[in-house]
Design brief:
Length: about 350
């Protein structure tokens, strides 16, 4: 694709200036691509009802066309035109968690282009809570289809700098409002099944969903084998975030349940510079090991995870050894991201 001049506009994360947001909204209305902050990660936005603009998102990211996008709206009353059926469970979840990091998969209306849904008869929808995202949605006056603002299968961005490292020259504009507060993608739940099925664990853990709608089906801890991420002829996925290899740094990442320090020493002693993502307090292992200590609380760890992996990726390490957090529901999202990142 021809290189673009990617404009970067600074914007206040709490009180975004109208003029700045309006410039970004005009880009969207003209069919351009805008990276913008949400409470989860930076998203790459396009007019969700413009087929050409949506296709440009896939081209900019190198995203396989079988991987659907999430549609962002500003208010619940805007959902009705996009869906064929809005079940009671969707209404209860929306009233409880929107605006916020929860994506609902429901049956779609004909107004939603096939490019958004990978041809499936469902659409993934959410209302973000970040002031800049809401201001952009309000100014654009259109639903915005927005996956994470990164190259396909790569680390998700939690800062404008992360976006530019991967997409500069491929998109029109970046709204830079500083770091994202959440740090991991939204929770995605499919409400077209009985019981509802958790498709992607995220910032809202399963127990909070159960309190609102009762029983839900959980995914496997480790992603099952699937077709190659680059195979554009494979079946449409039910949700973003379900590719077997995803959220991955450019250097090899290996997950370890136990004896992570022994694994680090193994590669260090073979002359490799190692990045170590750890929940413990390791000893000094010399200049060949860069330690990134992670918080022992799920939300705090989620907030720091991608930033730590981006830092290790750019530190010149040969590989990353990541300790997995406890095998408990509250850690499901962090485990999911690390396991997918480790896939070959």
């Amino acid at each position: 694709m021809a290189a673009l001049k990617t404009e970067v506009l600074k914007v206040d994360a709490v009180a975004p200036a109208f003029e700045t947001v309006e410039r970004a909204a005009d880009v969207l209305r003209r069919g351009g691509l805008v990276a913008f902050p949400t409470e989860t990660v930076y998203g790459l936005g396009a007019n969700a009802l413009d087929r050409s603009a949506v296709s440009a998102v896939f081209l900019a990211k190198g995203r396989p066309v079988n991987n659907p996008l999430i549609v962002h709206v500003a208010a619940v009353d805007q959902v009705k035109a996009l869906v064929h059926d809005w079940p009671a469970a969707a209404q209860r979840l929306a009233e409880t968690f929107w605006p916020g990091p929860l994506t609902l998969v429901v049956s779609r209306s004909s107004i939603v282009p096939d490019e958004v849904t990978a041809g499936r008869d469902t659409v993934a929808i959410r209302i973000p809570s970040h002031p800049v995202a809401l201001a952009l949605l309000g100014a654009a006056q259109t639903p915005i289809a927005a996956p994470s603002a990164n190259r396909s299968s790569r680390l998700s961005p939690t800062s404008a700098a992360h976006v530019l490292r991967q997409l500069e020259g491929r998109i029109d504009l970046v709204l830079d409002a500083g770091p994202c507060p959440g740090g991991l993608e939204s929770t995605v739940i499919d409400l077209t099944t009985n019981p509802p099925r958790l498709l992607r664990p995220g910032l809202i853990p399963p127990d909070r969903l159960r309190k609102v709608i009762g029983a839900i089906e959980l995914p496997e801890d480790c992603p099952p084998p699937a077709s190659n991420a680059s195979d554009k002829s494979s079946a449409a996925l039910p949700s973003p975030g379900m590719l077997p290899k995803h959220y991955a740094p450019l250097v090899p990442l290996e997950c370890v349940e136990k004896e992570a320090e022994r694994k680090v020493l193994y590669w260090r002693d073979r002359g490799q510079k190692v990045g170590w993502l750890t929940f413990s307090a390791p000893q000094d292992l010399g200049d060949m090991v860069i330690v990134s200590a992670m918080p022992g609380e799920p939300a705090a760890c989620a907030h720091r995870l991608y930033g730590a992996l981006h830092a290790l990726e750019t530190a010149g390490v040969d590989r990353i050894i990541a300790e997995l957090p406890p095998h408990r529901e509250e850690w499901l999202a962090v485990r999911d991201r690390l396991v997918r990142a480790s896939r070959k």
